[in-house]
Amino acid sequence: MLTRAKFIFSIALLIPLPGISAESARPIPRIERAGNQYRFLVDGRPFLMLGGQAHNSSASRAEDLEPFWKSLVGIHANTAEVPLYWELIEPQPGKFDFHLIDEIVAGARRNGLRLVFLWFGTWKNGDMDYTPEWLKRDPATYRRVIDARGSEMWIISPLCEAAREADARAFRAVMEHIRSIDESDRTVIMVQVENETGLLGTDRDYSEEATRLYRGAVPADLMVYLSKNRDSLSASFNAAWASTNFRASGTWTEVFGELAAEAFSAWHVARYVDVVAAAGKQAYPLPLYVNNWLVEGSATRAGNWPSGGPTVHVLDIWKAAAPHIDALAPDIYYPKFFDVAAQFTRPDNPLFVPETDPVPYFAANALLTFAYFNGFGFSPFGIDDFVENGAVTPRAAEFEDIYRMLRPLLTLIARYQYTGKLHPLLQGVAQGEDWAYAVRLGNKLAAGVEFTVKYDPEKARGRGLIVEMGPDDFVVAGSGFKVNFVELEGPPRDAQFLTIEEGTFEGERWVSTRRLNGDELHVELPEQSRILRVRLLR
Ligand code: DGJ
Predict the structure, then answer these.
(1) Is 119 in a helix, a strand, or coil?
(2) Would you tell me which of 260, 310, 401, 431 could form a disulfide with 252, CB atoms 3.0–4.6 Å apart?
(3) Long-range CB contacts (< 8 A, 24+ apart) of 20-25?
(4) Could you give the angle at the alpha carbon of 128 between the alpha carbons of 126 and 130, nearest 5°?
């Protein structure tokens, strides 16, 4: 029984005390680094983001986002990525209109989703489409990049201080506003600064000022950073620098050889973006990232991709120039997902895939992102029409199936990242792995995985994962494959099953829904993804 004093004390705990702000209730989201391991903490706990991004023009009227919210809920996503447009937020210099931010945050809350805002500011896909009209009309103040033929381009020069200050002022105002409406709820968990930065159509700015800097010395602080980090540079950057025998000083061409123009652009774009990011972080220090238009397909030289964006060639320059950016994130529309993810997973960079192709082939890459690369987020682009007439479309079925399977497993996956106990299974991830492969487990066991669907990159793909919960205790989830647990010592044989159960997780607690035995005593997962708990008797 409660004594009177205890009762009064308990009631007092429910009333917010003056001096304890709402802010302290939920800690601010942050990316925590411990050694080479990263965790994205939301409400103080590791968070894995099953995302989806809206089309570029879906957020200029909040009601246009309705199909997008439905799509996210329909595929069991937990996070929405939605653009914010500088041109609409600051229609006149210094006059801000935040009503879209308020309505989008309300929409996300109504649908039980977290939010990542995308700041479409100075850069959008390597040009300046989202800058405000007043800025577009005033190229004398807001200077443009000049191309190699001397023509003005549709890109703000990364050397233009006036544009940089205007962007930083607007971004700061946006972050201040987000803080003012969301500090106690933390619906907004991260913000993308700019969109696919860099100069599309030229390798560098050829204005007089830029050319003078290009012919001058590489800044000493960049050289110091590179010398310190010489053992961990990206392969292509290392090769370029090696071509000049790792010259420690000189002009951009003398130091970086063929990569000089892209390196020069990267330094100036990254420094510009860092000023914008720092202004935003000062107002509300949420995690910030930049996304990247990859070097892909038949692109041959900088300018085919936006030169100076955080491509694999210049990740190290971005790390040196933009310390306020928490992650350099690849937009992976490229079939070689694995290779790109590997390039962006580094001791100094966690993997986050903010955009990927919304076609079935790419859906299972969520498993690689979380269970192989220890990444914290994955998000198909332009998913507004994943649900039509209340039903998930066939195009979205793979995302729906995989997200539905992953949702209850997220706490467990987050807990086992970086332990070597997560084993994604993915048909066709490498040549020759489209019918079977073996996974080495601990405790003298291996898993023989055989895919039971015909590999078709357009549609079906066997996929899932094994989590080693204990020496003889496994979670096997997914579809389109079967697994044998094989003893690696003694006579060749399969391990004896003790129990197989079908079920789900609530946090880290296993909830069994069905016990399998007799004809069903094997680990086979057909079309629809399921979660099994398998225990062996050794
Ligand atoms: C990548 C960009 O970042 C997105 O905003 C969008 O334009 C897509 N490309 C379209 O494929």
Answers:
(1) strand
(2) 260
(3) 21/183, 22/183, 22/184, 23/183, 23/184, 25/184
(4) 120
Q: Strand pairing of 493-494 and 496-506?
A: unpaired
Cα(125) to ligand 1 centroid in Å equals: 7
Quote the CA–CA distance of 450 and 481 in Å, as a whole number. 5
**Does residue 168 contact residue 276 with C-beta atoms inside 8 Å?**
yes
The pTM for the full model equals 0.94
DSSP-H helix ranges across 218-259: 220-228, 235-242, 252-256
Ligand 1 center–CA 116 separation, angstroms: 15
The pocket around ligand 1, CB under 6 angstroms, is made up of: 56, 125, 195-196, 291, 331, 355, 381
Spans in the chain with pLDDT lower than 70:
1-24, 430-432
What lies within 8 Å, CB to CB, of 186 at 6+ separation is: 26, 28, 29, 42, 43, 114
Q: Using CA positions, which residue lies closest to atom 5 of ligand 1?
A: 56
| Backbone CA torsion sign across 173, 175, 178, 183 | negative
Distance of CA 363 to the CA centre of its chain: 14
